[in-house]
Amino acid sequence: MKLQFRSLGIAALWSAAFLHAAPAQPAEGPLGRPEAARLKPMILALKYVSYREPGGSPVLQEAETRALVSAVNAIYSRCSIEFRLEQFQTAVPRESGLVYQPSRMVELDPIRSRFEDPTRLVVITTGPWNRDGGLGKDGANAWTMMPGDRPAGTVLEGTFARNANLLAHELGHYLNLDHRHERDNLMNPVIYRDSTGIDPLQCERMRTAALAWRSEAIRNATPEAPTLVQTGSGAVRAGQAPQAELRARSPR
Ligand SMILES: [Zn+2]
Predict the structure, then answer these.
(1) What are 186-237's pLDDT values in tens digits?
(2) 137 by DSSP, 3-state: which?
(3) Is residue 245 in a domain?
(4) In a domain, 252, yes or no
(5) What is the 40 CA–ligand 1 centroid distance (Å)?
(6) Nearest alpha carbon to residue 121 among 95, 97, 93, 156
């Protein structure tokens, strides 16, 4: 599911940026897929926070999270987008004034704020949601803030944390994708085992959003907190990127 509270002004700005940046459609390969090989690789740094009770095991272990990100990357490979787990941490929510089992929508922003990272995309897996307060009563298991709104971040219900399609769907929202009605599309609101399709226009939209994230991450990066958000094959440490490139890359 998505959370979209963009103002019209911001939406128009993004739309304009998208139109101006619109490149030729990627060629279709023999299997009808966009030729990912023709697209410059993009790597986006990811921070994953896994909740745990005091003294308990985290909802997701680091090795499980790495396997999950690999599965997500297989889905995104057609867009030549890769998520790299640059930081994994477990957190006892109580120590930050948060609860293991959130129950209300209004609890999600404080969660995002607590773990927000200016140089990485952030995914937080909580314990199972307590549906007494309304959160998840509509069937949603995850909520993601879309570009233009803050605090950024995906909050996922731990019960479904191992579902790679769900995480891939939420990262689609993170990269500015809206819902689609085709069952086999990644952005179908109901996620089935075969809901993994991404079409070339969705790829382009996400790559445009990724460039914006990259520009923002570069602006925020410091030598102490580098980020792996990069394009091309060079190991660009974003904190060292030249200023001119920042301006040229930013669609805002
Ligand atoms: Zn959704």
Answers:
(1) 999 999 999 999 999 999 999 999 988 877 777 776 666 555 555 443 333 3
(2) coil
(3) no
(4) no
(5) 27
(6) 156
Dihedral class, residue 70 (left if φ above 0, else alpha if ψ from -120 to 50, else beta): alpha
- Signed CA dihedral, 208, 34, 4, 194: sign only: negative
Model confidence over 66-100: pLDDT tens digits? 999 999 999 999 999 999 999 999 999 999 999 99
The CATH code of the domain that includes 61 is 3.40.390.10
- Interval between CA 180 and ligand 1 midpoint (Å): 9
DSSP-derived letter for residue 34 is: B
Measured in Å, residue 187 CA sits from the centre of ligand 1 at 6
Beta bridge mates, 81:
42
Going from the Cα of 19 to the center of ligand 1, the distance in angstroms, rounded, reads 23
CA–centroid distance, 123 to ligand 1, in Å, is 15
Give domain status of residue 161, yes or no: yes
Q: Give me ligand 1 centre to Cα 162, in Å.
A: 17
How far, in Å, from the CA of 173 to the mean position of ligand 1? 7
Amino acid sitting at position 195: S
Q: How many CB atoms lie within 10 A of CB 36?
A: 16
